[in-house]
């Protein structure tokens, strides 16, 4: 778990350094993502420790930890593939102004999902809790991550429609968001 957590944050910085060095800062590690992110991490550590002390057998379900590890690896690989595919178009902060070099990326993993970096992070975060055999945080992470990404996708898609117009709307019609039960911003024609 600690290795996957460390690798996730280090690789966020590394891929940003490769793809978009102009936006590189200590924030690129995503360690100070938000108060909620830090609270979620702390909650998972507290749950793991208490359950390890009170119900040690709960923490020894090897097949479940293996499933969690696979989710973590899949999620992180998908997120990094999205970052690398998007190149300098990827930024940790949703952009409000279109730069001259900003293009709509629809190839690679963006041909599978409209928001592959969010899909990756979604499954990575839930996978960390499956890996730890944390039933409470697993449900909590799934619900909170889903709500966060539902709002984030809508916010981002409004911007993408503003940037790319009909080109983005056509892409949106063809490619799913990739997140369960999240369709994105509703557009009435």
TrEMBL record:
Q: What is this protein called?
A: Protein-S-isoprenylcysteine O-methyltransferase
Q: Which keywords does UniProt give here?
A: Endoplasmic reticulum, Membrane, Methyltransferase, S-adenosyl-L-methionine, Transferase, Transmembrane, Transmembrane helix
Q: Which GO terms describe its cellular component?
A: endoplasmic reticulum membrane
Q: Which InterPro entries match?
A: ICMT_MeTrfase (IPR007269), PPMT_MeTrfase (IPR025770)
UniProt superkingdom: Eukaryota
Catalysed reaction per UniProt? Answer: [protein]-C-terminal S-[(2E,6E)-farnesyl]-L-cysteine + S-adenosyl-L-methionine = [protein]-C-terminal S-[(2E,6E)-farnesyl]-L-cysteine methyl ester + S-adenosyl-L-homocysteine
E.C. numbers: 2.1.1.100
Q: Where in the cell is it found?
A: Endoplasmic reticulum membrane
Q: Does the keyword 4Fe-4S apply?
A: no
Lipid bilayer topology: Multi-pass membrane protein
The record's similarity note reads: Belongs to the class VI-like SAM-binding methyltransferase superfamily. Isoprenylcysteine carboxyl methyltransferase family.
Main function = Catalyzes the post-translational methylation of isoprenylated C-terminal cysteine residues.
**GO process terms (BP):** methylation
What PROSITE patterns does the record tag this protein with? SAM_ICMT (PS51564)
């Amino acid at each position: 778990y600690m290795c996957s957590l460390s690798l996730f944050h280090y690789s966020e910085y590394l891929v940003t350094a490769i793809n978009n060095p102009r936006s590189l800062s200590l924030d690129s590690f995503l360690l100070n993502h938000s108060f909620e992110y830090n609270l979620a991490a702390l909650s998972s550590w507290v749950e793991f420790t208490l359950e390890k002390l009170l119900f040690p057998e709960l923490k020894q379900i090897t097949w479940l930890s293996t499933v969690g590890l696979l989710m973590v690896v899949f999620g992180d690989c998908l997120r990094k593939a999205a970052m690398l595919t998007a190149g300098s178009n990827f930024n940790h902060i949703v952009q409000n102004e279109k730069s001259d070099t900003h293009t709509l990326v629809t190839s690679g993993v963006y041909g599978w999902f409209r928001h592959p970096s969010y899909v990756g992070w979604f499954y990575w975060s839930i996978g960390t809790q499956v890996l730890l055999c944390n039933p409470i945080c697993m449900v909590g992470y799934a619900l909170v991550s889903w709500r966060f990404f539902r709002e984030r996708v809508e916010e981002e898609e409004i911007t993408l429609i503003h940037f790319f117009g009909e080109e983005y709307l056509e892409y949106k019609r063809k490619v799913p968001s990739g997140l369960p039960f999240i369709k994105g911003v509703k557009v009435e024609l």
